[in-house]
Write a structure and sequence with these properties.
Layout lengths: L1 H11 L4 H8 L3 H9 L19 H9 L27 H4 L2 H11 L5 H8 L3 H8 L22 H13 L3 H11 L17
Helix pairs in contact: 1-2, 2-3, 6-8
C-alpha cells in the first residue's frame, strides 16, 4: 500500500517528495500529485510507525536532513517462509489450458526437457507424453498457445529454462536455433530505373 503510506507521510511529516517517493517506491511527480489531491482522492493514510515500518527517530532524522533517505525499521517478528520449489497451485479455471501450453512448448521450444516443461507448466510427465504422442483424451481440442499468455508461467521463467536447455546443446544446434528466432529483415526493394512516363 505505497500510496496510502505516502498520503500519511505527506499529511504528518515534513519530508520532501523525493524522500517519500524513494521510501514508497513512487515517482516524485506521483507523490506531488497525491499531495495536491490530483490523484488518490479518498485514500486513507496508512501509518508506517504503527505498522513497524518506520520509527519516529528515523522520520525526525530525515526531516532534518533532506538529502537522506528513510531506512525501513528492523522487525523482530519472524518473516514468512519462502515457498519451496515444488509444484505451484494452478487455479481450476486455468487447468484446462495446460495441454495448450504444453503443445506450444513442444512445438516452439523443442530443446526443453520434459522435466523443464513440467516445472514451467506445473504438470506431469504423463500429460506431456500424452500431448506429444497425441494420445491425450482431449487431443482434438488442443490448440497450441503461448503458456505466458495463458498465465501458466512467466516470461522470465521461460527464458531461464530455455537458456539452460540451450546451454546443453552442441554449438551448431544452438546457433541454428538462435538464427531461426532472429527477425528476418526484408531486402531493400530495388528501384525500377525505367522512366515513369515514356
Amino acid at each position: 500500500m505505497p500510496k496510502a503510506t505516502a498520503v500519511w507521510l505527506i499529511d504528518n511529516t515534513r519530508l520532501t517528495f523525493e524522500q517519500i517517493g524513494a521510501f514508497c517506491g513512487l515517482h516524485t511527480l506521483e507523490v506531488q500529485a497525491l499531495a495536491d489531491g490530483d490523484i488518490g482522492a479518498g485514500i486513507n493514510g496508512r501509518d508506517p510507525i504503527a505498522h513497524d515500518e518506520l520509527t519516529r527517530e528515523e522520520i525526525a532524522r530525515c526531516e532534518a536532513l533532506p538529502d537522506e533517505r528513510l531506512v525501513m525499521a528492523k522487525r523482530d517478528s519472524p518473516r514468512a517462509t519462502a515457498r519451496s520449489g515444488g509444484p505451484r497451485y494452478t487455479p481450476v479455471s486455468k487447468r484446462q489450458d495446460k495441454p495448450d501450453g504444453i503443445a506450444w512448448l513442444l512445438r516452439n521450444r523443442a530443446e526443453l526437457s520434459d522435466a523443464q516443461i513440467g516445472k514451467l507448466i506445473g504438470t506431469t510427465k504423463n500429460t506431456i507424453t500424452a500431448v506429444r504422442e497425441r494420445t491425450h483424451w482431449n487431443t482434438s481440442n488442443i490448440r497450441p498457445q503461448h503458456p505466458v499468455d495463458l498465465g501458466l508461467c512467466t516470461y522470465i521463467d521461460l527464458a531461464e529454462e530455455t537458456a539452460k536447455a540451450r546451454a546443453k546443446l552442441p554449438p551448431e544446434e544452438r546457433e541454428a536455433l538462435e538464427a531461426a528466432e532472429r527477425p528476418q529483415l526484408d531486402p531493400e526493394p530495388v528501384e525500377d530505373e525505367s522512366p515513369l512516363f515514356g
